[in-house]
Amino acid sequence: MFLKILSISFILAGFFFFTTATLGLLRFPDFYSRLHATGKGDTLAVLLSLIGLAIYHGFSLTSFKIIFIAVFYFMAQPTATHAIARAALRCGVKPWAKGEKRR
Amino acid sequence: MTEFFLGVGIGLCFLVFLCLYRGVFGPTVLNRLAGISAIGTKTLTILLLMGFVYDRVDMFMDISMVYAILNFIGTLAVAKYLETKGEV
Hints:
The complex is a heterodimer of chains A (103) and B (88). Chain A has 3 helices and no strands. Chain A has 103 residues and is an all-alpha fold. By secondary structure, chain B is mostly helical. Chain B has one domain. Helices cover 90% and strands 0% of the residues of chain B. Chain B is elongated. The N and C termini of chain B lie far apart (46 Å). The chains are: A mainly alpha (103), B mainly alpha (88).
C-alpha cells in the first residue's frame, strides 16, 4: 500500500513537470527559452515517471530495464538539446531581449 | 490502478496535441525540431503506461527503449545536418 502511494505520487509529479514543459514550449517568446523549458522539464518528468513505474512493478529484471531507460534518457536528452542549441547558434539565431517582438 | 494509468496516458495524449501545435506552426525548422523531440519524449512514457494497462510490460518496455534511442539519434542527426548547412 505504501509503495503504491509512493509510485502514484512519483507519476503525478512527472505529469506535472510534463505539463509545465509543454506550457513553456507553447508560451515562451523565442527559440532558446523554449528549448530551455522543454529540455529540462521533460528530462526530469521522464525520470520521475519511470522511477514511479519501476517502484510499482517491484524488484525484477523489467524494473531494472525501466531504470536503465531513465538513466539513458537522463544522459541523452541534454546532449540532444545541446546539439540543437549549438546548431541554432552556428546558424546565427539571435537570443531574445526584453522589449522585442515575440518570435 | 489501471484507471489511474489510463487517465495519465490520456492526459499525456492531450499534451502531445499541444506540442504538435509547435511542430506544425513553429516559425523555423529549429522550433519544429524542438516540438517533435518533446513529442517523442511523451510517446516513450505513454508506451510504458500502455504496457502497464495491458499487463505486458516486458514487451512494451523494449519498444519504449528502442523509441528512446531512435528519438535521440534522429534529433542529433537533424541538428548536425542543420549545423553543417549553416542556415535555417
